[in-house]
Known about the structure:
Layout: H1 3-28, H2 32-35, E1 56-62, E2 68-76, E3 80-87, E4 94-99, H3 102-115, E5 135-142, E6 145-151, H4 157-185, H5 190-202, H6 213-221, H7 227-241
Antiparallel strand pairs: 1-2, 1-5, 2-3, 3-4, 5-6
Helix pairs in contact: 3-4, 4-5, 5-7, 6-7
Amino acid sequence: MSKREAILRLTVAALLILGAAICAGAQNNPAKHNTREKVSAPPAAAIKTAPADDAKYSYEFTQPAFVINHIVIEHDAEGHGKIIFERKNGVEPITEPLELSEAARTRILNSWNALRFLDSETNYQSDKQFPHLGTMRLRLKNGTRERVAEFNWTHVPEAKALIDEYRRLSNQAIFVFDMSVSRESQPLDSPKLLGLLDKYISRNDISDPQQLIPLLRELSTDERLPLMTRNHAGRILKKLEK
């Protein structure tokens, strides 16, 4: 074998040994992108529940010449609240708990939202004044923010819709109170009260007639009340249950 062939064979052998070493090293030491530790994503932050709406809504009506001359309705976003009302020549204000039906609560809050009350500086008073119809005040307080708007007549549709809802709500609440008094001590007043309720319902002047169905069922069978009252309650009940 010539010297040149010997050198060539030694070179080939060396290359084979080097290749084997590289392969072995690759098996024992995976490539960098395979050996990098997998980093876990940080745990997602817990979703905080939005704080409860602490807004306080208020409606006030005043007209000293009316039989019911002062009404205040206060409630929260869930529809829990109270009504305070005074009668002309009455001894003291009457305060009763108030629960808005879901339908009434939705309509009322939608009207407040449509007004964007706290963000607005709109004057709801129309150019014409009608003080003989009474003065209305809308008040909304949410946290440190508070606004009051006063008017006796308005052409702003959302404001009118809101005060109409509160008027219906007061009609319903005062009827319920008066009927409870009638059942306890003044049963002869009950026919007049049922007649008034019938008119309210026909004029869409009750907040949620369906909310009165349990009461009307009781009235239709309450033997403390005159027969005409029971019959009238039954007729109204049939109309509402259709």
